[in-house]
Amino acid sequence: MSASTGQQPISEFVVALAAKQPTPGGGAAAAVGAAVGAAAAAMAAAYTTRKKDQESGAAAAAEALIATLDTDAALAAADTDAAAYADLQRSWKDTEMSAEEKASIEARALAVPVSLIERCHAYIVAVKDFLPLCNPNITSDAKVGIHQLAGAARAAYQTALVNSPPAEVIERIRGLLREIRDIEENLLGLA
User: Fold this and answer.
1) Distance between CA atoms of 95 and 33, rounded to whole angstroms?
2) pLDDT tier at 1 (50, 70, 90 boundaries)?
3) What is the pLDDT of residue 22?
4) pLDDT the model gives residue 191
5) N or C: more exposed end of the chain, with fewer CB within 10 A?
6) What whole-number distance in Å separates Cα of residue 186 and Cα of residue 191?
């Protein structure tokens, strides 16, 4: 068994992603993208812990943001996605599997990318709210984090769609993507 995504060198993950094999796939790529985005934003927060940031209260907000941006959880979603997809493939071939077990496997395969979209949205909102307090010399890195997380959310959305979500789930996650789009457009000056 190969190492978890979080334990692999990035070059090893990229080679595995490019290979003709079922996993890692798009869901794992989305999760790694989310981890990279969270890390970029966390770095910007880490640079907002100077003495003057301590005095202004910005450092406390930076530390809270760092605690929110869980890169390990985002990376773990890559492995969760791979496991869910392996189970889904198994369900296609197992003629003796019960309908309940198949439904449970399908629900999990959908839940993984939906959860990643929700995580990306929450992280983006947290970073956006932190921007006014961010060390002005490094706000571009916080914004890079937002854009990377936004791309990861859109990628996870495509993975969710493959899993035939019900209409109410589609509408809910589209709403999150619209909010993300609005945040990005404001940052880019396109709003």
Assistant:
1) 36
2) very low
3) 87
4) 76
5) N
6) 5
Q: Average the pLDDT over each of 17-26, 30-39, 65-74 and give the range with the smallest value.
A: 17-26
Q: Which value, to the nearest 10 degrees, does the dihedral of the CA atoms of residues 174, 176, 180, 185 take?
A: 50
**What average pLDDT does this structure show over 60-69?**
98
Tell me which long-range contacts 57-61 makes (C-beta under 8 A, separation of at least 24): 57/133, 58/133, 58/134, 58/135, 61/130, 61/133
The answer to whether 31 touches 74, Cβ cutoff 8 Å, is yes
Q: Which amino acid belongs to residue 179? A: E
CATH number of the domain at 22-188, please? Answer: 1.20.120.680
Q: Where are the domains of the chain?
A: 22-188
Average pLDDT of the residues in 10-26: 92
DSSP 132: G
Residues 6+ apart with CB under 8 A from 169: 110, 114, 160
